[in-house]
Design goal:
Length: 237
C-alpha cells in the first residue's frame, strides 16, 4: 500500500495504523528521508513509488494545487495498472463554499471517475488546537465565529481508512466525524480551562454563505469517531 501525505498530520497515523494491522506500507514524501520520494505536482518519482502497489491512500495536500496534483496521481495510477484509490475529503465540502472545499468536490469527482472512493472527515483536533492558540493571541478577549463542529481524532480517521481499504471499497463510505457535536465556544472554553488561560470569549457573527452553512451544521457529520477534544488536550498539551 502507498500513502501520499505520509509525513502529514493524518498520513503519519495512516501509515502507523496500516502497519499495526499487518500491511506492507510505503509512505510518500517529496523529500523527507526514509520515505519514497515523489512530487505529485510534477509527477517526478511517481512511477517508481507506485511500483508493485495495489492500494493508494491519498492524504497529500498543499492547500492550493491539489486538483493538479491529483490529476498527475491518477495519470500515474492508470499507467501503473489501476491500483485501488481512497481519497480523504472533508465533511460539508459540497455545502460550504470555500475555494479549498470546491477543489475537494472536483477531486472527489475525479476519484469517482477513476473508480476510487472518498471518505469525508470532519476537522481534526489538531486543526482545532491551531485555531484555539490563535484565539488567545490577544491578551484579554478572544473573538470567535459561533457555530457547531464535530472535530475528530486523526487516529480514528486512520482506522476508518484502514477498514475501508481492507473491505469492499464502497462508492461512498459516508461522512466520518467525532463523537460529540460541540459549539466552538465550548471547545475554546475547554482549551482555556485546560491551559489555565483567561479570556473573555466574544462571539462574532460573520456574514456570508460560508458562515451560514457552518451555522447550519454543514461541517458536523454523523459521528463514528471515539476520541474526544478533552482527551486530545490531555494527551497533546
Ligand atoms: N486538517 C483537517 O482538519 C482535515 C479534516 C478533514 C480532512 N482533511 C484532509 O486530510 C488530508 C490530510 O490533511 P493533513 O492535515 O494531514 O495534511 P498536512 O499535515 O498538511 O500534510 C500534507 C502532506 O502532503 C504532502 N505534500 C504536499 N504537497 C505534495 C506534493 N506536491 N507531492 C507529494 N506530497 C505532497 C506533504 O508531505 P512532504 O512535505 O513530506 O512532501 C505533507 O506532509 C487532506 O486532504 C486534508 O484536506 C483535513
Amino acid at each position: 500500500m502507498l500513502v501520499t501525505g505520509a509525513t502529514g498530520t493524518l498520513g503519519r497515523d495512516v501509515v502507523a495504523v496500516l502497519k499495526e494491522r499487518g500491511h506492507e506500507v510505503r509512505g510518500l514524501s517529496r523529500s523527507r528521508p526514509g520515505y519514497a520520494h515523489a512530487d505529485l505536482l510534477t509527477g517526478e518519482g511517481l512511477a517508481e513509488a507506485l511500483d508493485g502497489i495495489d492500494v493508494v491512500v491519498h492524504a497529500a495536500t498543499d492547500g492550493r494545487k491539489d486538483v493538479a496534483a491529483t490529476a498527475k496521481l491518477i495519470e500515474a495510477l492508470e499507467a501503473a495498472g489501476k491500483p485501488q484509490l481512497v481519497f480523504v475529503s472533508i465533511v460539508g465540502v459540497d455545502r460550504i463554499p470555500l475555494g479549498y472545499y470546491r477543489d475537494k468536490v472536483t477531486i472527489e469527482g475525479m476519484v469517482a471517475a477513476y473508480g476510487g472512493t472518498s471518505l469525508r472527515a470532519s476537522q481534526f483536533h489538531d486543526l482545532v488546537l491551531t485555531l484555539a492558540k490563535a484565539l488567545t493571541k490577544l491578551p484579554l478577549i478572544g473573538f470567535y465565529p459561533a457555530f457547531d463542529v464535530r472535530p475528530v481524532e486523526v487516529h480514528d480517521v486512520a482506522v476508518r481508512l484502514a477498514e475501508i481499504v481492507e473491505g469492499e471499497l464502497p462508492a461512498q463510505p459516508g461522512d466520518f466525524s467525532g463523537p460529540q457535536r460541540r459549539s466552538t465556544r465550548a471547545l475554546w472554553q475547554a482549551y482555556l480551562t485546560h491551559t489555565g488561560k483567561r479570556r473573555l470569549l466574544v462571539p462574532i457573527r460573520l456574514p456570508g454563505r460560508i458562515f451560514r452553512a457552518l451555522r447550519d451544521g454543514a461541517g458536523t457529520g454523523p459521528g463514528g469517531g471515539i476520541g474526544t477534544w478533552e482527551e486530545f488536550l490531555v494527551r497533546k498539551l
